[in-house]
TrEMBL record:
Highest taxon listed in the record's lineage: Eukaryota
Organism: Exophiala viscosa
Segments traversing the membrane: 40-62, 82-102, 145-172, 502-524
Protein name: Transmembrane protein
Keyword line: Membrane, Transmembrane, Transmembrane helix
Keyword Transmembrane helix: yes
Length: 588
């Protein structure tokens, strides 16, 4: 019988080849890779991994700093230095790996074919001298090698973009806090709004007149055409307040009231040879079905002696008669659209709920807006049962004081004589603020009336808000309330843009990976690892012909420039040296 060894020798593999040949081939393959030293693949892999880790650290460091206060110049400078250092290290690690890959691929080219001395000079020195890329003819024949060299040189570009992905910016911060606000409450017994008297029996309070404390902020409100400044703040503040306060609603007057006023004003115009442009008044004795022109000629209307409606049994009112088309905002005659037709406005006092929004900036600017919901009409009363210390009595007196000062702003006439001369009496709002003037070029009377009634409502609301919360003579109200507020301020913070950093590093990592994979391929193809060190060059260039080529004493010094006869020599290195050279004397 045949021995097992003999049987084994006859076995063949799946492809039909004897098993012993397969073993020999595997041994030869292992021997072929025996010259691959661990250093080259280790450096390529470790440097790439190191670069990847440094990139992760860079990303993590910037994530850690994102949103942190940049509290000092010293902190900012050290953060910038750390980011620059990490970018440099990442680039350095990747460049080490690609430079080793370049060496391996260079020896693929050197083994493959002979090269002239000029090409060898460029190939060996390009990683240290970028001017070697100017020899386009050399690199056009070695695109793979040129690619690895170019990537190695261009990797530092990522270090230009990545440190800039962390910047210092002014970021708006918001904090919720409780804010104490000065207030002048309508339910507080105070002489800021009006003067009052108490009857001898002590059970009745009489309204006397509005107080100077209300007159001053009213004038300021009309001049500013807005709410007086509220309490200043070192930060930007936003808060909301809900409260009850007086408000007026202005609408076109009823036809009955308008016809009464129109007939009496026409009689007044005929008797004075004038044209009434504007007339503001409050109901008082003489106003009613029997009103005539003498009512509007009285000093009470002309001089505004009566500014509070103590006649109406429901809401206290102010009437405004307008015949303003045909005049510009300065009161001068001008062409107008439509037909000149007088109209009349009625503003009535109501108790309203306010929802006010305050935006106060640290720069001193502010924006105060409010929406109102009318609750019930409010009459003006000459006497109120109860003492002034009662909140209901105080509210009544103070609310009608605001209506009193509102009337002071609006009552009185503006008339034009037949010669075009203008006379304005007692109408403070129109004298103080030209924007309140009820005329505009090219607008009809209905449009002008609608605009004027909205402005009157806004003026009353501004007076209300100014008296409640504005600074009067630089001081807030003595009463105070607490409300939630949002404080906003700008803080210098580090702001990170990860997308830019990851894109810049991603491109670098991708191209470096391609180069390293090419280096690994070159290792396997060469079956050995190489460097471009002097000792490697010496070991592959020993040749008698080369010694004869540089036998001249001047050539032995190796100084620049390279002699022409040396530059033109074509060298065969490595495996290509085994190929028989041509008969040309320029081959070594």
């Amino acid at each position: 019988m045949r021995s097992k060894a003999n049987i084994a020798k006859q076995k063949v593999d799946m492809s039909g080849k004897p098993a012993v040949d397969v073993v020999v081939k595997e041994v030869r393959d292992m021997q072929r890779f025996s010259h691959i030293h661990w250093r080259a693949p280790t450096i390529m892999g470790a440097s790439y991994l190191c670069g990847f880790i440094v990139i992760g650290v860079h990303h993590g460091f910037y994530l850690l700093m994102n949103g942190e206060p940049a509290s000092s110049a010293l902190l900012q400078s050290w953060v910038n230095r750390a980011g620059t250092a990490l970018a440099f290290l990442a680039r350095l690690c990747l460049a080490i790996g690609t430079s080793v890959a370049y060496d391996q691929w260079m020896w693929v080219d050197l083994h493959a074919k002979p090269h002239d001395m000029r090409s060898l000079d460029a190939m060996f020195s390009v990683l240290g001298n970028s001017f070697e890329f100017l020899h386009f003819r050399i690199w056009s024949r070695k695109p793979a090698l040129a690619f690895i060299a170019a990537v190695t040189w261009l990797l530092p570009i990522s270090a230009v973009f990545t440190p800039g992905t962390l910047s210092v910016q002014a970021v708006l911060q918001s904090n919720n806090e409780s804010l104490r606000i000065g207030e002048r409450a309508y339910t507080t017994n105070s002489d800021l709004y009006c003067g009052y008297g108490t009857d001898p029996d002590g059970n009745t309070t009489s309204y006397v007149e509005l107080a100077t404390g209300l007159f001053v902020p009213t004038m300021g409100t009309v001049l500013n055409n807005g709410v007086l400044p509220v309490q200043p703040s070192t930060t930007n503040l936003t808060y909301h307040l809900q409260f009850y306060a007086p408000a007026v609603t202005c609408n076109q007057s009823s036809d009955e009231d308008f016809q009464l006023a129109k007939g009496a004003i026409l009689e007044y115009e005929n008797s004075t040879s004038t044209k009434v442009f504007y007339m503001g008044w409050v109901p008082q004795p003489g106003w009613g079905p029997v009103v005539n022109g003498s009512f509007f000629a009285s000093d009470d209307v002309q001089l505004g002696n009566t500014r509070l409606d103590l006649v109406s049994q429901d809401a206290a009112r102010v009437f405004i008669y307008l015949n303003t088309t045909g005049y510009d905002s300065s009161g001068n005659p001008t062409p107008f659209s439509g037909t000149s037709s007088a109209q009349m406005i009625t503003c009535a006092l109501y108790n309203a709920s306010y929802d006010a929004s305050f935006e106060v900036n640290s720069t001193g600017t502010q924006q105060v807006t409010a929406s109102t919901k009318f609750q019930n009409w409010m009459p003006a009363l000459e006497t109120v049962p109860g003492v002034a210390q009662t909140s209901l009595v105080s509210r009544q007196m103070n609310m009608q004081a605001v209506m009193d000062v509102f009337g002071m702003m609006l009552v009185g006439p503006i008339t034009f004589g037949l010669d075009g001369s203008r006379s304005i009496t007692s109408v403070y709002a129109l004298q103080l603020n030209q924007q309140m003037y009820p005329a505009q070029v090219g607008e009809d009377q209905t449009t002008l009336t609608q605009r004027q009634l909205l402005r009157n409502e806004a003026m009353f609301q501004n007076i209300t808000l100014s008296m409640l919360f504005g600074l009067v003579n630089g001081q807030p109200g003595e009463d105070s309330l607490t409300t939630p507020a949002v404080s906003q301020y700008f803080e210098s913070q580090f702001v990170y843009e990860p997308r830019t950093l990851l894109i810049a590093y991603g491109v670098s990592v991708l191209f470096a990976l391609v180069c390293i994979l090419m280096g690994v391929h070159a290792l396997l193809h060469n079956g050995a690892s190489y460097t471009n060190s002097f000792s490697t060059i010496v070991r592959v260039t020993r040749d008698p012909a080369l010694s004869r080529l540089i036998a001249d004493e001047g050539d032995l010094q190796g100084a620049e420039p390279v002699p022409k006869h040396v530059r033109r020599v074509v060298l065969r290195l490595g495996r290509s040296a085994k190929v028989l050279p041509s008969n040309s004397p320029a081959w070594i």
